[in-house]
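Appendix B. Worked example

We walk through a single record from start to finish. Start with the input: the chain for Tetratricopeptide repeat protein, Desulfitobacterium hafniense, length 214.
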Amino acid sequence: MQKRTQKLTVYVIVGLLIISLVGTSFMFLGDMRPTVGKNYQDQINSLKQALEANPQDTQTRLALADTYYDWGMQTLSQDMAEENLATTTSILQQAVTEYQEVLKTEKNVNILVDMATAAFYTSQNELADQTFQEALQEDPNFYNGLYNYGVFLYSQGDYGKAIEQWEKALALENISPDNKERLERNIKLAQDGIVQQFQQPENGDSSDANAEAK
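Next comes the structure step. The output line below is what the pipeline stores for this chain.
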């Protein structure tokens, strides 16, 4: 039970990440969610039919992976209730599976980061870590890669390395004021996490629990 609670805590902490990557339009859907879900399913069905006709069509498979990814991240950004995590995880797992197929024939930093992010949210931590690192080898200055890898490292309690990724992102040229503010806030959270790690032997508090209360 504690592990599931900590997982939810991380989702709450990084909720702004989802909105920043998926798009602000999803913030205002409200009661339209079931319709949007149906629209995603319709898109998926159409793409699957196209793949049945041409299984080697990498771009169609990538579109399928992206559709699963967008649907899963949208669902997570709107409703982080524990009882809905299984459905969201299932959707994102489909994204991981399709991205893995795409990467057999086409590799770029966007695909790698999206797959790593989906793997993170499905608790495939080793796969997420390896894929984030691979993405940043491809492009060390890719903002989404630096940001999301920092979120992943934060979730693992590796606050120092999370700060390192976010500081690299903060040093990039032409980042928006909103992203700068978000990075600075996350760095402060990670710095607080380091302090709490040193204090933990004395008070026994979980750093995740403390972060949730902020």
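Two observations about the output. Residues 1-6, 15-34, 205-214 have pLDDT under 50 and may be disordered. The chain is about 75% helix and 0% strand.
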